Each structure stands twice: as structure tokens, then as C-alpha cells.
Amino acid sequence: MVLRFYNTMSREKEDFKPIDDDLVRIYSCGQTIYDDLHIGNARAYANWDILNRYLSWKGFDVFHVLNVTDVGHLTDDADQGEDKVEKRAKERGIEPRELVTQQLKRFYDELDKLNIKRHNVNPRATGHIHEMIEAVKDILDNGYAYERNGSVYFDVEKFHEDHGYAKMSGMDLEELQENASGQLGEEERKEKKSPLDFALWINASPEHLMKWESPWSNGYPGWHLECSVMSTKYLGEHFDIHTGGVDHIFPHHPNERAQNYAMNNLDEEPVNYWLHSEFITVNGEKMSKSEGNFVTVRDVLEEYVGEVLRMFYSSSHYRSQVDYSEEAIKNAESRLEKLYNTLWNLENAEGGDEDSLEDEIREVRQQFEEAMDDDLDSPRALDALMRFAKKANKSLDNRKELLEEVKETIQELGRVLGLSLELKEQEGNLSDELLDLLVSLRDKLREEGEYEEADRIRDSLKEEGIQLEDTDDGTVWKRS
Ligand code: AMP
Ligand code: ZN
Question: CATH fold of 4-277, please?
Fold first, then answer.
């Protein structure tokens, strides 16, 4: 089986060949740290976590970098507007760095709750200002940039002649220029030679808080620069996979690529595979902070465990849009419940002498790998896993060793998709028979008017993860 990725650069699925035989180097564009994650942001990080986990499962070593933007990301893409971090810090009446410290803590906490593996490095833009200044000098020396009034701009037309600027966007240069031209403010129109030129260094206005001395001005780096500098620093001039959201297909990634070429004087592509993850929508519209139609990870975690969100994410392909709704989350929760119920049954069944599951194990592994090899088709892989679990649940008369192997297979494959599938100790402690007994005892107590005692049984069962439901046919218990 051959692993293939859809490469935005070629607009085709390509066989994956790492630069080094067993090590895969990945750079993922990360979060601008000024607000809580919404579930759209987290979807991208969950998708790249699956990429990381799948490559590891296939036997590769993975070195994964996700950057943290804490300076230079402006409210407007055309190098105008306020720094997003500064703006929010001012609104809250705190220092920008204080805001970043607070938000970063929440960011990592949420990544952990979503079982997103910690990256090898999370470099921060403000920790690399010196290297960024050096990179701007190199780009100027190599003839791909020019200075205007203390700001430095990348010369896109010059670069385009040498290496083709527009390729990733799938549009031609004139089209891009025309679109960009409409977005330019007066200042930029005066300073930029061409509307597509973008800032490498920006001369700071007096009220700007985060600024540094440089040969050109007391200023700050353009947003795109950090990724070129930090990817080169941690992964080298030529690395395997670069990921981001579809919004990065233009202009962020073409700009990064252009800077990588220019600062390192490359004569080959800096990145072999560019992968882009689609948006989460709400009623068909992109979920975004500016539209106000967003749901934060924090909101969802108030009601559901992070694993439910991971199930929701895996249920759609990373290159498809997916609409968020309460119903979609409930579906994910019920799929997860099915997996847990199966795991519990497998662990607690006595087993028999059948061995029908032996072939099923082989088959699900093959289906799972085929699906994931095909550009990380997680929904197809998950469907195979769910079908397998369903069959297993109906085949508890298989040999006990096989049931154990089935359980481990479900856990192993599910974990590639970022699920934890950890059976809690206490869930295994109460057998079905004991639960039946406790329920009938509670019914009896209620008949006798001993409501307090009956409630005590209900509450302690709840703590053990057992829900009681009063139905027309009497009380039934359910593992949650
Ligand atoms: P932002 O905070 O808008 O810069 O977004 C940070 C990351 O989240 C980027 O990689 C975006 O591509 C991604 N992103 C933003 N909005 C969504 C969305 N609605 N669905 C999926 N990913 C998103
Ligand atoms: Zn980036």
C-alpha cells in the first residue's frame, strides 16, 4: 500500500516519499494567540495530529513543529490595521505579553483535553525577532526586497520571474494583482511597487507597543516572515510537509514559500507536500470570530469530553467542509458510546470456542490502512472500525484471546484517529448482575417509600458512570 497526499501545489494526489528514509519533518501554521480556540481552529490541529499519529503508526519518526504567533498578525491581510494581540490586550487593559501568557495556558490545556499530541517544538514569533531581522537582510542582499520609509517589502514580481509566485493559489498573477489592488490603503499604495508586495518589516507608529530596533526602523516583523524563519531553523531549508488551513493557500503560504526561496537562495522547492484543511461551517457559512457564529472548544468541553469532539472531527475528511450542529456532536457521542460499549463487552465477556473474528481483524487493519493511505481518509477508516466493532459485539462467543486481540485492535486503530479509548477502572468493577441487583433493590426501596436510600443508590451509580432511567417497564441501567 502506498501513502498518498493531495498536494495543493500540484492539485493531485502524490505518492509520499520522505526526504530521509525514516524521519518526516512537518511544519503546521499555528494559532495567533489572542483569544480562545473555536472548534474550527481546533479542527485543523486535530487533523494534523492524525497526520502525525498515522505517520508514526506507519513506522516513521516524526518531527512536528507548530508555531505560535504572538506578534505581527494584523487585523487586515494587506499589511494594515492593528496587531491582533495588541488590540485585544488594550481592550482588556493588560500588556500584550500578559494576554499571550494567559491565552497560551488555555491553548495548551485545550490541546491536551483534545488529546492532541504535544508538538516537538512550539516556537514563538517574539522569540525569533533577531533571526527575522537577519532573514530580512538576506532577502534584501539577494535582491528580492526593497525598503521604503523604514519598512521593507518583498518584491513579488521579481520573485515571480525567477520561481513562479502564483502557482499554489491556482490563479494567475494578473488576477491576484487585480484583487490585491482593491484592498490597498493609501499608505501601502504609495510605498509598494506592486499591490502583491508584502511587508517583511514594518515601521511602527508611535502608539504601537511591540517594536524592536532594526537597521530600517524601530518596528516589527510582517506576519508571514516568522513561519519561513522558524521552519528553516527547526526543519532545515528543505522539509517534507507543510500544513495549514485553506485560507493559507493565498496569501500566507505563497508568501512563505517566496521568503524561503529568497532568504536561503534556494534552487529547489523548500517544501515537498503542501496540505490544507477545510473549514467548519455553521449553516453553510464559515465559522469565524468576525462573523460571531463560532463555538469555542471551551463551550463544547463544558458539556462533552474532548474525545467526542475528536470523534466529530474524524468523521469528516480533512479536505471537506463540515457543518457544525448540536446533532452532529450528538451523533459523534453516540458512535463513541458504541465503541466503549464494545470494548467493555469484549473485556468482560467469558468467550467461547469460535474464531470467526480472526479474519475480521486482518480485514479491518487492511481497510483502515487503505483508507488512511488514501490522503488520510479518516471517515472511511472510522466506518471500517465501527463495522468491525459491531461484528465483534455480536461475536462474543469467540475465544477469549481473540476477544482481547479485537479489543486491542479497536484501541490501537482508534488512537491513530486521536481517540483515547481508555476503559475506566470503575466501569469494569460492576458486573451486569450486580447492577441488576442494585436496581431491583432501589425499586424495592422506592416501593417502601425509602426515597432517600433509593436516591443514594442512584447517585453512587452515577458516579460510577451508570445512568438509571425510569421507563414504563421499570428502571433500566445504562453505562455512560
Ligand atoms: P485564525 O485564528 O483565524 O488565524 O485561524 C487559525 C487557524 O484556524 C488557521 O489555520 C485557520 O485556517 C484555521 N481556521 C480558522 N477558521 C476556521 C474554520 N471555521 N474551520 C476550520 N479551520 C479554521
Ligand atoms: Zn505560517
Answer: Rossmann fold (3.40.50)
- How are beta strands 322-323 and 280-282 bridged, if at all? parallel
Q: Please check whether the domain covering 318-416 is classified as CATH 3.40.50.300.
A: no
Write down the domain spans for the chain: 4-277, 318-416, 432-479
Taking the CA of 44 as reference, the closest ligand is: 1
Fold agreement (4-277, 318-416):
no
> What value, to the nearest 5°, has the Cα angle with vertex 324 and ends 319 and 328?
100
* Best mutation site among 29, 33, 41 for ligand 1 pocket (most ligand atoms within 8 Å of CB): 41
> How far, in Å, is the centroid of ligand 1 from the Cα of 3?
26
Answer yes or no: is the C-beta of 254 below 6 A from any ligand 1 atom: no
pLDDT digits over 295-326, tens only? 999 999 999 999 999 999 999 999 999 999 99
**CA contacts within 13 A on the Cβ side of 414:** 28
Q: Enumerate helices (H) and strands (E) in the chain, giving the number of each.
A: 18, 17
Collapsing DSSP to helix, strand or coil, 468 comes out as strand
- CB of 288 within 6 A of ligand 1: the answer is yes
Neighbouring C-alpha atoms within 13 Å toward the C-beta of 217: 19
37 within 8 A of 107, measured Cβ to Cβ: yes
- Report if pTM > 0.70: yes
- Cβ neighbours, 10 Å, residue 459: 10
- pLDDT tens digits for range 378-395: 999 999 999 999 999 999
Q: How remote is the CA of residue 75 from the centroid of ligand 2, in Å? A: 16
